[in-house]
Q: What sequence folds into this?
């Protein structure tokens, strides 16, 4: 606690610190809520440098993008103190503190806000779609090529497949033989993994500024109105595909079960929620998407779900070195949940195509 207080005091905060407590449930960074005797609260985060190996590049991305978004929001007559993350600089003007305990950053806490860990009704997911669609729209003119890749090949699914095969070959945990069915599930879909990257290579899918981690709980909602306020957790903002953002949201939000649910009978893709998110997303940014982007939207959920599942499985085989686990075989349970979603999406592929085609006619 004393260490965190000393670190926090290096930032240009208002008031005296009265309390620091763990906050949130993220898999990667360690997050704390700082209370003060002023009217302000702050989010202090220890950056996981095993994942984000160059904190300077990470924070340069975040500061640059949030400053840009603040200007856009001002032009839209919005509230830049509430509708986008605000990075608190150190007293020396730096965006993070490098301490012997790690790299730390400080963000403003948005009052009267909340996050949703699961979709409770289609309206929630519709507004999440609008939030991420608006994010895409507001960054449409931002030069994506100027951003650092904070995690190389983050949503490059063929590279993720290669990493998966490398983990299987190395078998650091000795568990590969016990998950042969899951390994074969991934291998049977090897060719699908390159669907999007092949289209990037031939120029038919454009690179955009993308969030790349569009889970429902990365949208801040107003506590009173439950309307979306801002998109948060910008660690993975970098050049990417609109399909990554759309697909990851579908992966997470259309599944009513927990991401680590053991009872796979509870795991399925809810097409009502798929349509709700797609409607909100297309209402905000659909007019900016190319015909090929729109055509690929029905496949995005499957791609990102398969990719996430193979990452969980690879980490299980490697010895749980990336994702935090809270029980034995936790990453294996996560992988199996993703694979059940892939199977259900495959069964509903034609219905997803029909939904997107209908929404495009209605909205665009």
A:
């Amino acid at each position: 606690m004393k260490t965190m207080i000393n670190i926090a005091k290096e930032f240009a905060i208002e008031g005296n610190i009265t309390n620091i407590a763990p906050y949130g449930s993220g898999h990667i960074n360690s997050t704390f809520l700082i209370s003060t005797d002023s009217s302000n609260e702050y989010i202090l985060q220890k950056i996981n440098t095993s994942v984000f190996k160059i904190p300077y590049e990470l924070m340069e991305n975040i500061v640059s993008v949030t400053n840009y978004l603040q200007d856009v929001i001002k032009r839209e007559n919005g509230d830049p103190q509430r509708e986008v993350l605000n990075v608190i600089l150190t007293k020396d003007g730096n965006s993070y503190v490098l301490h012997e305990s790690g790299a730390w950053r400080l963000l403003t806490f948005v009052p009267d806000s909340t996050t949703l860990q699961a979709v409770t009704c289609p309206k929630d997911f519709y507004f999440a779609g609008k939030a991420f669609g608006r994010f895409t729209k507001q960054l449409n003119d931002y030069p994506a090529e100027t951003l650092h890749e904070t995690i190389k090949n983050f949503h490059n699914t063929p590279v993720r497949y290669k990493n998966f095969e490398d983990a299987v070959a190395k078998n650091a945990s000795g568990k590969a033989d016990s998950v042969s069915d899951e390994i074969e599930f991934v291998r049977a879909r090897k060719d699908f993994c390159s669907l999007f990257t092949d289209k990037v290579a031939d120029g038919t899918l454009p690179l955009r500024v993308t969030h790349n981690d569009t889970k429902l709980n990365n949208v801040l909602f107003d506590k009173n109105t439950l309307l979306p306020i801002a998109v948060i957790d910008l660690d993975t903002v970098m050049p990417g595909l609109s399909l990554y953002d759309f697909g990851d949201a579908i992966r997470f939000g259309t599944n009513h079960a927990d991401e680590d649910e053991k009872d796979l009978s509870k795991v399925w893709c809810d097409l009502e929620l798929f349509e709700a998110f797609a409607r909100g997303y297309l209402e905000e940014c659909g007019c900016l998407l190319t015909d090929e982007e729109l055509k690929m939207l029905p496949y995005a959920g499957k791609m990102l779900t398969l990719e996430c599942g193979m990452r969980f499985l690879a980490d299980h085989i490697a010895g749980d070195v990336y994702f935090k686990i809270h029980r034995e075989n936790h990453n294996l349970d996560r992988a199996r949940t993703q694979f059940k979603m892939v199977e259900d999406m495959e069964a509903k592929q034609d219905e997803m195509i029909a939904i997107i085609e209908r929404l495009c006619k209605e909205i665009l």
